[in-house]
Amino acid sequence: MIGLPLTSPKRWLAAACLSLAALAAIPARADAPAKLNIAFVGDSMADGLWGAMFRRLGKDKCLAEKVKLIRKAKNGTGLTRLDQFNWVDEIGKIVEADHPDLFVGSFGINDRQGIVEKDKRAIAYPSPAFDARYQTLVVDIVRAAMAEGGSMLIVGLPIMMEEDANADALAKNKIFEAAIKESGSDKAGFAQPWTSGATPEAYKPYLPNARNAMVMVRAPDGIHFTTVGYDMVMESIYPSVLASFKARGRDLATECPSRVGVR
User: Fold this and answer.
1) How far, in Å, CA of 167 to CA of 172, rounded?
2) Structural domain of residue 158, as residue ranges?
3) CB distance 108 to 78 below 8 Å
């Protein structure tokens, strides 16, 4: 029987040392940063923004690898009918279950009505009492979103077609801004409303796209947007999303230089 040559202990030890040295020379790969969770909350306008961000991720592989979207908007809801649906409680449940890093919220289009509390007490709309209570509710939402260290971005309401709806949107935006200031946290932000680009601002259902073709951007109801319109709104508020994450120590603009635009 022919035996296999035996490696001497000294040679084996030297080879092992060389292998370990080679492994030590290889730089350790840093763990990839955790995905950032973005929860969209509020009414149907918020759901339209979720759709726009979903499409954005579909066009940007880098961004899709770093961001997870959580779709929690509920059509027909608002802040005034606490006897039917309470966004403060709902956001608390979302925080506990999903731990979002950022909430993006749009509220107000269903709130041109009096506030009805859980115990059925009513506050008339419009009135100073309504404005004060509404602001308190917004502050409560923001604080609920930040309860476990998350951030909150409230998106301003755009210009509306009908005069009374537009007046209400302007009043709501003032309340949103005041509530963000009252929250007293750099984790809370207000994204200025999307504009049509007109000076002064004007309701325009059609606007030119990137190819300079006129496209319909507002829905026939004079409140919502079309798919293209929501993409334009997301384009306008995306810097605020980036700023929210940068304040949390994640610079997505550097991690994923944006090449996505409205087409």
Assistant:
1) 9
2) 34-194+226-255
3) yes
Its pTM stands at 0.87
| Burial label, 32 (beta-carbon count in 10 A; 0-12, 13-18, 19+) | exposed
CB atoms closer than 10 angstroms to residue 95: 19
For residue range 64-78, list pLDDT tens digits in order.
999 999 999 999 999
Query: Among 176, 211, 216, 213, which residue's Cα sits nearest to residue 196?
Result: 216
Is residue 1 a part of any domain in this protein?
no
Averaged pLDDT for residues 12-19: 52
Mean confidence (pLDDT) of the chain: 90
CB atoms within 10 A of CB 122: 11
pLDDT value for 23: 45
Q: Residue 115 pairs with which residues in a beta bridge?
A: 123
Asked whether residue 199 is assigned to any structural domain, the reply reads: no
Specify the CATH number for the domain of residue 70: 3.40.50.1110
In a domain, 233, yes or no: yes
Q: How many domains does the chain have?
A: 1
